[in-house]
Model the fold of this input.
Amino acid sequence: MCGIVGYLGNREAVPVLMQGLKQLEYRGYDSSGVGVLHRKKIKVIKEQGKLEMLERKLTDKLNTNIGIAHTRWATHGGVTTENAHPHSGPEGKVAVVHNGIIDNFSNLKEELQAKGNVFLSETDSEVVAHLVEEYIDLGPEQAVSKALSRLDGTYGMLFLFRDHPEMIIGARNGSPLVIGIGQEEMFLASDALAFAGFTQHAVFVDDGEMVILSNKDYRVVNRQNIQINKNVEELDMSSNIKDMQGFPHFLLKEIFEQPKSVFRAMGRGGRLLPDFGTALLGGLNMEKRDFYDIRKIHILAMGTAMYAGEIGKYIIEDLTRIPVEVSDASELCGINPIVEKDTLFVAVSQSGETRDTIAAVQEIKQKGGRVLGLLNAVGSTMARMTDGGAYIHAGAEFSVASTKAFTSQVTVLALMALMIGRTRDISLTRGKELVQELMDLPDKITSILEKADEIKKMAERIKDHHSVMYMGRGINYPVAMEAALKLKEVSYIHAEAYSAGSLKHGPLALICEEIPSVFICTSGDYQEKTISNIQEVRARNGRVLVISNYEDDTLRKVADELFVVPSSDSLLSPLLTIVPCQLLGYYTALALGRDIDQPRNLAKSVTTD
Ligand code: G6P
Done:
């Protein structure tokens, strides 16, 4: 779960590498480091803590055009400067930055220690530097290749060599690696974001491949040392530069970007066909008749993407009458999942790099299942392993807590439901109604954002509590789950979500003055029952905040605080009710002085098991 970047070219390497690390910080941010060739030596500078700490250490101008760098999320070994990357071999001939986990590192370490090697860190990665140096007399390529053949585990790795000043070698197995091709300069990184602003030309490296980079050229070889011809892809990186655009935090910027990102998810309107009351997602690679054959849809995802999937389940089941299962992808692997021919699997992921979701996709595909991807990161690992899908076009999301990706995922799931539904039972009239409702969403979200100050006041009242309950019924239940996740991720206040119906089956015991509840209560089927639940909480001295899409006397009477979003079709209401909940998480964290964009212990992209 780390970010790696390498540079070789005509520019000063350190500023380029630092810019790359800033772009990659979402992958981990507990320590960082750079390794450059300087005066015929590999100079490593690393530091525990945020990137600013490393920046402070980089006071000397190092005239060098080649280097590798790393931003860390600790797996093996605590958060210390010694454990930060790069790691070097015993004689300083090789340095490595590594993303992934080497499973057999202890055995290799013992073997090398028996030969007298001394290790300076507790990491699995340092072993790789020692191993390559052990074989370095074979030449860098052979040395890396031989070392790789002895590793079990996952890696995206970059190697720098003291005696080969015009070469970086990279290798990939289970952790992403992408080459950026510039004018007489090359980049090699765990994510194309690292070179956004320098080049749009990218080559995605696959598992089992090794990259040999010079500033003019690159070669990709497989494990048998056979050269592979790779496609150069042109990426649209325009919205991918890390820039807060005047907002104090990325989280707030991304919440406020949602009118636009939801519109982009609808292909700026191009994915909607108003006259036919339907949507068009060409990338699904499915014909009308394929939709008839689907008997079940199975969504695979983690975290916020999974809650988007849970909301998608309500929308898809309502519009298509196809049963939907949503799986926590980490729970799916190793349980011999059932893969039936007429099940359509859908992986939902912002990054396209989440290890658990990738592992689930791999398992399903091995069993012959068809997997679509609803993804944000173009060219990501999942984008290249799925059988089709749709990008959600949210633009790069930098805050660890996901917001705009969530609303874009729900939007694209709604488009998919509408598209499949229209080939089945949905009438043209209902289809047209939904298309209009979808088109109205951006303005409705804007009107919620205009009332952000109301939520700021609510946050003042939440911030001193140690626990908050979130509740809703039906489609509002997964909204409550996502809302609770947002609060706990960024404010560190314990928050739990329950279906309002399950309240009496246990959670009611928790209700007291000290534990406020947030109810998502929208008009329609569950309205009355939810009001009763709110009353049950009030009767036990519980304070209640209500997020609703209607307002009447009863609601005003039962709610201690009420926030009203515009009304909409009930299936699309989560796209509105979630917005105040995101703001509540943000403002509570702000009031508590939390590290909003980089909450403790978390990383945006979880690329380890
Ligand atoms: C991490 C992030 C979450 C995200 C989840 C899934 O836990 O902190 O914000 O929802 O991973 O990530 P994905 O990239 O697959 O959507």
